[in-house]
Amino acid sequence: MAELFDELQEQCDEFEFEKILQEKFDSYNREFFDGKIAKQDKLLEQPKVWTWSASYNFESHRIKIHPELITGSHYSINPEAPIKGIELYIFDSLLHEMIHKYCVEVLDVKENDGHGPEFEKKCYEIAETLMLEIIDEKDIECFPLNSRPKYYYMGAWRTQIARMVGSRSWASLTFPDKTYPKQLGS
Question: Given pLDDT bands bounded at 50, 70 and 90, which one contains residue 48?
Fold first, then answer.
């Protein structure tokens, strides 16, 4: 019975977060894309590659946000981080994929890696609106995630944590139980 309850709770959480994502999609669409991106019925779906947090499929024209992000169980998320930090990470992942969708569907640009000149141009435009700095090409590949201030995700994005402590990979990092997020606020 407890397992059934947990499963139902997870489905409700997913349903509720899907609504939140759709609202954020609409908001970003108005703010950054003049409402030109076609809405899709579902955003919370597993990307083609299970390790990806989010993706845009250039053939199906679908954005997919990994459902494990909302539970903190995706490997790129620090499950001990505050929910708000995880939410900010998910919203920025959505924005990144929306830039891909805009380039393909609105500008009709087919770029090999998806991070070509039109993608870069849109990133700079959004960065100016959000008052973010784009330093180099790596910032474009993960925009806006790499352009956010040091503690923006409150320890939720493991890659950002690794960069803050000078490691090349978050996978080699270890943190004392439940202490890292608390240290962020101090």
Answer: confident
